[in-house]
From TrEMBL, chain A:
Gene giving rise to this polypeptide: LOC105226006
Pfam family, one: COMM_HN
Span of the signal peptide: none
Protein name: COMM domain-containing protein 2
Domain COMM: 123-211
Superkingdom field: Eukaryota
UniProtKB/TrEMBL annotation, chain B:
CDD domains: Commd3 (cd04751)
Coiled coil: none
Signal peptide segment: none
Protein name in the entry: COMM domain-containing protein 3
Gene designation: LOC105234055
Domain COMM stretches: 122-193
Assigned protein family: Belongs to the COMM domain-containing protein 3 family.
Length: 220, 195
């Protein structure tokens, strides 16, 4: 798998060719900070002064590093792919080591974001339930019909790991989160509940079958 | 609680076995019971009932449905129903027929009326599919994990069609959690039942 970096992005990474590994570590840190907090011009100014270049050059390099990170994760790049980048761009071994660490350490974070950027279906996040007896209705004054009322909490956003990383203990629900959430009240009776459990267990059992495991590992 | 019926309903019942002859009246009662218990489409039509006195037959049908529904609603027993109908001066053969029809089908009538009313969507069916991603617009490779698409639904009582109530996806872990949660509910219910 080749790293699909655009010519511009490769050009922006040229800065790395002339810097030592410590500076590259600093740039990688700046790139990760960009992912969580957005661009930080002051920091780029500071780095630009240090490298005696323009702020724009530093910012472009940081952005190109992010592109590298995303492309490497998206294409599931191997050590070998990174080595071919090194040959093409002529980075020193030290710099290359920093880059490959940068890519592998943040892969999990990027994978989470990439998955969440794809088509989102509702995920079941939580269930609250209550066992109830309906005692009377307009059409039947005396009854005792047993049911389980459940509240299903559904989210379209991905697992919250990344968001949690980005927000430091901010408990307030964002408006976009609210838009991506749905609560639903449903009910069922006990025999349907038992039936549901059986059917879902069959599904889970089936997913662990040799056939499905073989197919999944085959396409992975 | 004593049952109360409006004047038109009482009139509709009094017509049976008098203005409408006994045979037709019995057919009408049997046919009305079918309409009460089953979806409209599954009941074959009985044109005999409407050949003469179509207007009166309609009123009587309405009266029989009302009687069955109100008696079921109040959980009236056969003896109380008989006493009530005697007070209404219903023709004696028809009175027996009405009481017998009610008493023989009380359970079905009660179940029918249990289904009426306002409720949260009632899940009775689960469908599922297992999916594995191969490639996507945002990732060139498979995540190597399967996901479960779960569809909870019910069957419409009048036409038998399946209706989706909610649809969601789960990972394997989430599926296991869901099953555990449902089992926990089942366990709690059993505990309550044995108390």
């Amino acid at each position: 798998m080749l790293l699909n970096l655009k010519t511009d992005q490769r050009r922006h990474l040229e800065l790395l060719r002339h810097r030592g590994s410590e500076d590259v570590v600093e740039l990688c840190k700046a790139a990760f900070e960009y992912l969580s907090l957005g661009p930080n011009t002051q920091r780029y100014q500071h780095l630009a002064q240090k490298y005696s270049t323009d702020t724009g050059v530093v910012q472009s390099a940081v952005e190109a590093l992010i592109a590298l990170l995303i492309n490497a994760t998206k294409g599931n790049a191997s050590e070998f792919d990174l080595q071919s980048l090194q040959q093409e761009e002529g980075y020193s071994n030290d710099v290359m080591q920093v880059l490959s660490q940068f890519v592998s350490s943040k892969r999990h974070f990027i994978e989470g974001s990439i998955k969440s950027a794809n088509i989102r279906a509702y995920r079941l996040v939580n269930i609250e339930w209550r066992l109830e007896v309906r005692l009377a209705t307009r059409s039947l004054l005396r009854q005792s019909s047993i049911r389980v009322t459940m509240k299903l909490y559904l989210h379209t956003e991905p697992k919250n790991e990344n968001r949690d990383l980005l927000e430091d203990g901010d408990q307030a629900i964002h408006s976009d989160e609210r838009r991506n959430r749905k609560d639903l009240l449903v009910q069922t009776d006990l025999s349907s509940l038992v039936h549901m459990i059986q059917v879902l267990e069959t599904a889970l059992y089936e997913s662990k079958s040799r056939r499905i495991r073989n197919i999944v590992s085959g396409i992975h | 609680m004593a049952i109360k019926l409006s004047d038109p309903v009482i009139k509709g019942l009094q017509q049976l076995g008098t203005d409408i002859n006994i045979d037709i009246s019995k057919k009408l009662i049997a046919n009305t019971l079918k309409h009460t218990l089953s979806p409209e489409a599954s009941v074959p039509s009985v044109p005999d009932i409407y050949i003469t006195n179509a207007d009166k037959a309609k009123l009587s049908e309405y009266a029989v449905v009302t009687l069955l529904a109100i008696a079921t609603k109040h959980g009236t027993d056969a003896a109380s129903l008989r006493a009530f109908l005697e007070k209404c001066e219903i023709q004696s053969t028809i009175l027996e027929e009405l009481v017998r029809t009610y008493d023989d089908h009380r359970k079905e009538l009660t179940i029918r009326q249990l289904q009426i009313g306002s409720d949260f969507p009632h899940i009775t069916d689960v469908q599922w599919r297992i999916m594995a991603d191969v490639r996507s617009s945002t990732s060139d490779c498979s995540s190597g994990e399967v996901s479960f698409h779960v569809n909870l639904g019910r069957y419409n009582e009048s036409n038998g069609e399946r209706e989706t109530i909610v649809e969601f996806v789960c990972s394997t872990e989430e599926m296991q959690l869901l099953i555990n949660k449902l089992k926990e509910i089942e366990r709690h219910c059993e505990k309550v039942a044995t108390k």
